Amino acid sequence: MGIVLGPNQYGKAENRLVVVSRDGDVHTIKDLTVGTSLRGDLADTHLTGDNSKVLATDTQKNTVHAFAKQAPVGEIEDFALRLGRHFVSSQEAITGARVLVDEHSWQRIEDNGHSFVGGSAEKRTTAVTVDGPRAWVVSGVRDLVVLKTTGSEFHGFPRDEYTTLPETDDRVLATSVTARWRYRDEDVDWAASHAAIRRLLLGAFAAKHSLSLQQTLYAMGEAVLLDRPEVAEVRLSMPNKHHFAVDLSPFGLENHNEVFHAADRPYGLIEGSVLRDDAEDAGLAWYSLPEF
Fold it and tell me: Cβ-count burial of 29 within 10 angstroms (0-12 exposed, 13-18 middle, 19+ buried)?
């Protein structure tokens, strides 16, 4: 029986980076979490401990910091592309790079050019994969918490000896959306595209009268693909943040879907992808991310 080294990569994860751009009395902030991973001709370090082809993870961290100074960070997609291409072009042994970036939101305090308040937990994300001369961009949003107080049902599911969940034709539907979309190429206004896709996701969630969270997921992905030709595929992960109507009858009170217990766990986890039937094979694009 032979033993061989399988696919591998290494890098610097969760590098926290805050960049302040000072334009007179008006400042802007880029607050990022950056992860880099490299792959290529790295068998020697695994098999013999020869590190002559290993660009240290500390060097990767320093490169992130230097790139943030040498040119404006700009849109996170462009920043990730610059980093990924640098690692592949500057290191002979490195044939591929993955760069993950989360952007944390800050909002300017009114009438003050240099003071900010932290935004929501929502994060704008991108994952760039560079493989030789080719590159794929997968952008998205994470921790986008949404809720609707009506317009959602759930019934008609199988019942067996272990089923206790009652059917409902009116429930609170809440979730924390993780959405990732694969771009067809790099000729994209990243900021405008992200803002438009976010609006489409929210609009579809609100407008769709839902018989299941799965139906809502599909409607959200479909809305993006119908309106944004630059997107080839959308993947969504949506935990069902359950809201259970509280039984108030012991207190002589009726509960007409007004008082709920918000349960944080366990929760249903609905995941799926919506894609064009002629979409090019993503190849390494999805290798740059968890499955969802």
Answer: middle
Single-letter code of the amino acid located at 143: D
User: pLDDT, tens digit, for every residue of 29-49?
Assistant: 999 999 999 999 999 999 999
Contact 240, 269 (CB under 8 A): yes
Q: Which of 19, 17, 21, 28 is nearest to 112 (CA)?
A: 28
The phi and psi torsions of 179 (rounded to 5 degrees) equal -125, 135
Task: Kindly state the average pLDDT of the residues 95-103.
Answer: 97
121: Cβ–Cβ under 8 A, 6 or more apart, which residues? 143, 145
* Closest by CA position to 114, among listed 23, 33, 31, 32: 23
Q: What is the pLDDT of residue 281?
A: 60
**Stated pTM of the model:** 0.92
Give residue 106's identity as a one-letter amino acid code. Answer: W
- State the pLDDT at residue 228: 98
The lowest-confidence range among 158-162, 261-265, 286-290 is 286-290
* Strand segments (E) across the chain: 10-23, 26-40, 94-108, 116-131, 134-148, 173-183, 231-240, 243-245, 260-262, 268-275
Q: Which residues, other chains included, contact 90 with Cβ-Cβ below 8 Å and sequence gap of 6+?
A: none
At 259, the amino acid letter reads V
Give the C-alpha separation, 33 to 127, whole Å. Answer: 12
φ, ψ of residue 259 in degrees (nearest 5)? -120, 125
Active-site amino acid positions: 12, 57, 242
262-278, pLDDT tens digit by residue?
998 999 999 999 999 98
Task: State the residue for tokens 């918490």.
Answer: 145
